[in-house]
Amino acid sequence: MPPVGDATRTYGQWWDSTEPRVRVAIADLERVGRAAYESVGASPDDASFLTATNLDKAIQGDHARGVGKIPGLIAAARAGKLDMAPTVAIVREHGATAIVDGGPKAFGRLVCKFGIDLAIDKAREFGVGFVGARGTAELLTPFIARAVDQGMVAMAMVQSVPTVAPLGGTVALLGNAPMAWGVPTADREPVICDMSFTQSSASPILTAADQGEPIAPGLLLDEHGNPTTNAADFPDWDLIRATGGTGVAVKGSLVPLGDSHKGFAMVFLVGLLSSMLTDTDPPWTLYHHLPERGRYGTTLLVIDPRRLDPSGNVYTKVDAFVDMITSAPRKEGVDEILYPGLRSQQLKRERRAEGAIAIPASQFAAMAELAASVSQPLEGTG
């Protein structure tokens, strides 16, 4: 496990694959991803957007949510389980608010792409726009970034599969409460805070369990509600196998942020509001092994800060705030004070300049097989 604070990874990203790596050109991964998504009906613009959502994770070193996810999504689309060209419609609208839906098979990221663009348009008109999207964004930063690029403040929350037990309980009924905020700047990197309200997200603990690795104390409870450092206490492999290995099912529970009532309160609220404000289903209906699952919801809020500060200096004020924090006196041994999202944006810029990234060998093999299926070459080096 890389140490917390490793400058080659985002802060706190302690997990990693133990597999050998294959170095691949970023442009080649982009080309294969776009071709694959277009082969199952996605428009060129949507194909580029969808490829980038997972590729950006891989570029910053998060391979649990990186390009290894793309072949499975394409397979689901080929099997008719996901619609990569959904007709997304506004099903309810009032002033600055709306609900959008693309149907039960619509790829959630495309429903949310439509939703965030609608929220941006509403913010231009009303100063604020709120859209509930019936579908899962899964990864929130790409949607927040679309608003930030337009000079808007944005917030998103998404419902997720149960991985957290109620405080004092033993059965996971709540998701891990993913939430993201984005704030535009004048000349600095945007402020991007994308996090869940648990001590760790599910992906790294599942990775550790798959690799037979222990985890740090304070991240996980076993099925009896007791603290554990055995990652294998988290997944329910029998139920995961019952879904064909495509779903998440757990017997343990992630620990709420801070291991306290405050973290649990945020987990509770994100779960409640992601359902209530999208007119979708609660998290305990989303278990992958259920014969009839509920539907995910993603909330998308956009605010035009220029409506609240007509001075014309709103973005330079953000820069001044950032500079005050990052220039604060540092402890011995600390080279740099960061702000939310800075390191991930630095890593993406540096690695895109290098032109290539190293991905786990199994993910390269899956991408190479996908590439061959769409008549695209893909080469890598050990």
Automatic annotation (TrEMBL):
SUPFAM superfamilies the record matches: L-sulfolactate dehydrogenase-like
Key words of the record: Oxidoreductase
The keyword Oxidoreductase is assigned to this record: yes
This protein's record includes keyword Amino-acid biosynthesis: no
Entry-linked InterPro entries: Mal/L-sulf/L-lact_DH-like_ah, Mal/L-sulf/L-lact_DH-like_NADP, Mal/L-sulfo/L-lacto_DH-like_sf, Malate/L-lactate_DH-like
GO molecular function (one): oxidoreductase activity
Family indicated by similarity: Belongs to the LDH2/MDH2 oxidoreductase family.
Protein name (database record): Unannotated protein
Organism: freshwater metagenome
